[in-house]
């Protein structure tokens, strides 16, 4: 299992049902793990809403199709005038074009990488969702035990006051989950996490499409990933030592069919890549005007290099 609040919340849901004989304060340790994940999701959504309103939407409005059309028209006129008057013929487009000069292949590449990263987040969560749905409601029988064999008494069986003594010593196999906890985990943990990941993907798509400087494009794409790391950050920051000791020994256990699964062997790779390529193409169809602007900005920067002086870059120092 990954050390994050998402899977810690899933384990807590399983444990709260499986350990009915634990004292209230011991059960609260698992309930708090669920609360920490809910707080993580609230923090992610809040930061995303602020970032979307203050940065992503502001950039989209600044580079609206109408504004970009006016910029392209001005750059065209500047380039035409520069053919007859090479020095002093530039207008005030130097700074704008310096920030929108990246090549189309870099924009497509960064968008493909971004959607590839988001697809992994969504698919990993969907795999856990499928696993929980398939879990039986009661603990499955151990096939290694022979029929009629007497059940051995475990000397380390949990008692009301000493559950903390054996937690983390044995591997906890999560192989079933009660229906009420399934429903809780799906509605309050997994589906909100999938929705948050899709929202991050949408906001990041707008942000990357509006960023045309190659250096800033790469750095900001990596910076957006920081929001995805909140669940791991909050887990490391707030998880108690006892829960972490228990959690690192927990694992999922389910019965796989004996026949070969071709989707998981190689078809899933093609499927994920096809989805990433499709989302990249769909994303850039919404921002064709930015690609056109960057084409003319590259022509502008070739005509008026960034290291020129005076008015020839379109930037007056008077």
Secondary structure elements and pairings:
Layout: H1 5-18, H2 24-62, H3 65-84, H4 94-98, H5 104-134, H6 163-166, E1 173-174, H7 179-210, H8 214-228, H9 230-238, H10 241-247, E2 251-252, H11 262-285, H12 288-303
Parallel strand pairs: 1-2
Helix pairs in contact: 1-2, 1-7, 2-7, 2-9, 3-12, 5-7, 5-8, 5-11, 7-8
Q: What does the average pLDDT come to?
A: 81
Count of DSSP strands: 2
Helix % is 55-70%
**Count of separate DSSP helical elements:** 12
Estimated structural class: mainly alpha
Q: Give the ordered list of helices and strands.
A: HHHHHHEHHHHEHH
Describe the biggest sheet? Answer: 2 strands, parallel
How far the N terminus sits from the C terminus, by CA atoms, comes to 62 Å
Overall radius of gyration: 28 Å
General shape: elongated
Task: Indicate the low-confidence ranges by residue numbers.
Answer: 309-318
Numbering strands along the chain, what is their spatial order in the largest sheet?
A: 1-2
Quick tags:
disordered C terminus, 68% helix, two-stranded parallel sheet, mainly alpha, 12 helices, 318 residues
Question: Could you explain the architecture of this structure?
Answer:
With 318 residues, the protein is mainly alpha-helical. It has one domain. Helices cover 68% and strands 1% of the residues. The protein has twelve helices and two strands; from the N terminus they run ααααααβααααβαα. The protein has helices spanning 5-18, 24-62, 65-84, 94-98, 104-134, 163-166, 179-210, 214-228, 230-238, 241-247, 262-285, 288-303, and strands at 173-174, 251-252. The longest helix is centred in the first third of the chain and has 39 residues, at 24-62. Mean pLDDT is 81; it is low at 309-318.
């Amino acid at each position: 299992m990954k050390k994050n609040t998402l899977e810690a919340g899933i384990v807590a849901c399983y444990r709260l049902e499986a350990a009915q004989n634990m004292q209230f304060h011991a059960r609260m340790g698992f309930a708090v793990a669920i609360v920490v994940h809910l707080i993580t999701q609230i923090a992610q959504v809040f930061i995303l809403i602020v970032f979307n309103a203050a940065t992503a939407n502001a950039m989209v409005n600044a580079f609206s199709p109408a504004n970009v059309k006016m910029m392209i028209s001005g750059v065209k006129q500047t380039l035409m005038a520069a053919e007859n008057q090479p020095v002093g013929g530039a207008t005030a487009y130097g700074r704008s074009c310096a920030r929108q000069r990246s090549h189309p292949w870099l924009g497509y590449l960064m968008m493909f990488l971004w959607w590839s990263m988001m697809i992994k987040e969504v698919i990993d969560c969907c795999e856990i969702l499928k696993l929980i749905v398939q879990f039986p409601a009661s603990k499955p029988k151990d096939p290694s035990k022979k029929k009629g064999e007497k059940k051995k008494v475990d000397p380390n069986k949990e008692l009301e006051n000493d559950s903390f003594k054996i937690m983390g010593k044995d591997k906890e196999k999560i192989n079933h989950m009660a229906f009420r906890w399934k429903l809780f985990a799906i509605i309050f943990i997994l589906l909100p996490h999938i929705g948050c990941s899709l929202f991050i993907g949408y906001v990041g798509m707008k942000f990357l499409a509006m960023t045309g400087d190659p250096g800033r494009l790469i750095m900001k794409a990596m910076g957006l990933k920081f929001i995805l790391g909140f669940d791991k950050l909050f887990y490391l920051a707030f998880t108690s030592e006892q829960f972490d000791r228990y959690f690192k020994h927990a694992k999922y256990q389910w019965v796989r069919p004996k026949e070969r699964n071709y989707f998981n062997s190689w078809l899933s790779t093609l499927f994920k890549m096809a989805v990433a390529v499709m989302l990249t193409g769909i994303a850039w169809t919404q921002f064709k005007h930015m690609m056109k602007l960057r084409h003319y900005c590259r022509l502008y920067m070739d005509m008026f290099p960034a290291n020129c002086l005076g008015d020839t870059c379109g930037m007056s120092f008077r």
